[in-house]
Structure formats: C-alpha cells, structure tokens
Design brief:
Shape: globular
Low-confidence stretches: none
CATH topology: Beta-galactosidase, Chain A, domain 5
CATH class: Mainly Beta
Number of helices: 2
Mean pLDDT: 96
Radius of gyration: 19 Å
Largest sheet: 9 strands, antiparallel
Helix content: under 10%
Number of domains: 1
Strand content: 35-45%
C-alpha cells in the first residue's frame, strides 16, 4: 500500500489543490483531491495489462470548479438530496436555504457547495487513508451551527473504498452527508451503464411528487419497476411508463434499506457481465438514493480524456437519510444535536 501526492492546480484565495493516489496490494488505485473532498478516479486492472477508470469525472481542476451540475465524485453536505421549498423549521425557528432548483427547492444544500471548497487534509500512510476536514460556520448556506466535518477515504487490500463521515456542531443542525460518484464498471468511457445488473436490499421506496420531493408514502416495490430485490439489468425498466418513472425521467428514487440494525451491512450490488466486475455497497445508513444519470447529457459534459458523457453513462448509489427528511415527520430525522457526533460509513467494495 502507498500514497503519492501531486499538484492538481490553483484554488480560490491562492490555495493549492492536491491529488492523492492511493494504491493497494492488488494493483488497484484511487485518486482523491482536497478540492471538494472529491473521489476523482477508481482504477481497476483490466485484461490487457492496463486499467479502467470506473467513475466519471474530470482531468483538470477547472472543470471540478463548476461541478454543481452533476456533482461527479463529490462529497455532498451538510444535506444531500432535496429539501422542499428550500426551508425547514428547527427548534421553532424557520431556516431559509438557497433555492437552487428551478422549482424553488433546495438540492444538495445549495450554492457554494462543499464540493467546490478547499478542504484541509492529513495523510495516514499506515492505514492507507486520507482525511479531509472542513469548517462550515453558523449560517453557512442557511444552516445553523458551526459545523466541523471530516471525510476519510481508505483503500484496503480487500479492494474496498471506505468512506467515513464525522462531524460536530455547537447548535442543532442537519447532518446528512453522501458521496455522489457515478459508477460504470466497464469504464467511464465505455458508454451506457444500462446493461449492468443492480441489486438493492429494499422492499419499499419513498414515493415522489412531480418535483421529486417525497410525498411521505412508502410504496412496496412488488410488481413495480423499482423492484431490485433480484438482480436485474438497469435498462430493462428504465423507460417503463410507470408514473413514478415518468416523474423522475428514469430511476431517481430513495429506497428504504431492509437492515437488521444500525451496523454496516451489504445494501446493494452492481455487476458488469462484460468485464466480470462487481461492486458491493455496504453502509450503516438507512436509505439509498439510486440515480441512473438521467440528465447528464443535457449539460454537454466533456469528462476525462475529453470523453463526452451521455445520459446514463454512470449511476449513483448515494447513502444517507431520505430526501426532505427534516420536513417529514414519518422519516428518520437527520438532526444532529449540539455536542453530539455525527458518524457514518459507506464502503464500495470491488471484485475483479
């Protein structure tokens, strides 16, 4: 195992971004940057004695500096996903957030997102990990409390990309972090991810309205396109006329994981028959947002090696709380109490 550090480019305020390359004993390596605490690359050996990068992203820092369109590889916080009407009430006080969606909801916490900020970093060579740390002051993006947050990436010799989030606040606030990587196990430049197989350990999903906000209803996946309890190709039902699919333009739904307890469990599996690669997802989170990259192409994205990413070139499997949980009494609360510690872990394990 080893960690190499190289320059990535100039950030705002004269700060400098770095690229961290972590390698394990199986010739797998990942690339991270302290700009946005972003997962830049996951490189897996292929059959021609080379590597395939299985996450979508960019080669240069300047493209990541406008990464609030697709959020490639991003660390998202304080709150991932949507908050209805860009507003919530906490301790009888109303908090107004950025209305950064055209329907006036809040998405991924709003403008000036965490994935476009310079994070402090520390390297742990013994554990093959890098920790990124950020201070988010009281009122930042409209959220209460001084929030000190860290994200630790570890690459293990079991081919696991382990992501641990930890945070504290001096006021009650929302803490709901996630990673927004787009995965394509055939490679970021291989075209569609729709031929890959997905399993999700979930009997129910959160129904959404026409603004992609949960209605508060949990729907049984039985006899719906959102049943992934048996592994199936993503593309089979992507254009199903089922109303929920039409509202989202494909898959963009949160699944309630059938967990035994709050421990880290296997919650999803992505499999690619073309390369015989598998990615297992483990987490202690209670929900998984499956987004099939329905609108990548709308943004004319030129990714690594100037490859033109199209709709569904990669898929996201984002762990966390349910969308709009702060406004939904039936949902598990995302509130972090003052003085308490927020901590959650997600693991993407690759088999190749």
């Amino acid at each position: 195992m080893s960690i190499e550090i190289s320059d990535f480019g100039n950030c705002e305020n004269g700060k400098f971004a770095k690229i961290f390359t972590l390698t394990n004993s199986n010739n797998m390596f990942i690339k991270l940057t302290n700009y946005g605490a972003i997962l830049v690359s996951v490189l897996l050996p292929n059959q021609i004695q080379s590597y395939d990068d299985v996450v979508l992203g960019f080669d240069t820092l300047d493209k990541y500096s406008s990464n609030d369109i697709c959020y490639f590889g991003s660390t998202v916080g304080r709150n991932s996903s949507r908050i209805s009407n860009a507003q919530f009430t906490l301790n009888e006080k109303i908090y107004d957030l950025d209305k950064n969606e055209k329907n006036k909801n809040n998405l991924h916490s709003g403008f000036n997102p965490y994935n476009e900020r310079y994070w402090d970093y520390s390297v742990d060579e013994e554990n093959n990990s890098v920790t990124f740390s950020l201070f988010s002051p009281d009122g930042d993006q409209g959220f209460p409390g001084d929030f000190n947050v860290s994200v630790t990436y570890t690459l293990t010799n079991s081919n696991e990309v382990k992501i641990e989030y930890s945070g504290t606040s001096n006021k009650d606030t929302i803490a709901n972090m996630t990673n927004h990587s787009y995965f394509n196990l055939s490679g970021h430049d291989s075209g569609t991810a729709l031929n890959q197989y997905l399993y999700i350990n979930s009997n129910k999903y959160a129904e959404i309205d026409d603004e992609l906000i949960p209605t508060g209803n949990f729907i049984d996946v039985t006899n719906t396109p959102l049943d992934f309890r048996t592994s199936k190709q993503i593309g089979i039902d992507i254009n199903n006329p089922y109303k929920q699919m039409q509202l989202a333009g494909g898959f963009d739904h949160s699944f309630i994981i059938d967990k035994k307890d709050n421990s880290i469990e296997k919650i999803a599996v992505l499999r690619d028959e073309k390369t015989n690669r598998t990615m297992e997802v483990y987490s202690d989170c209670m929900a998984l947002q499956f987004y099939a990259g329905n609108f990548i192409e709308n943004n004319t994205i030129l990714g690594k090696n100037n490859y033109s990413y199209k709709n569904r070139s990669g898929i996201c499997l984002e762990t966390g709380f349910l969308p709009d949980a702060i406004n939904q009494k039936k949902f598990v609360s995302p509130i972090l109490k003052a003085g308490d510690t927020y901590h959650t872990t997600t693991i993407y394990k690759f088999i190749f």
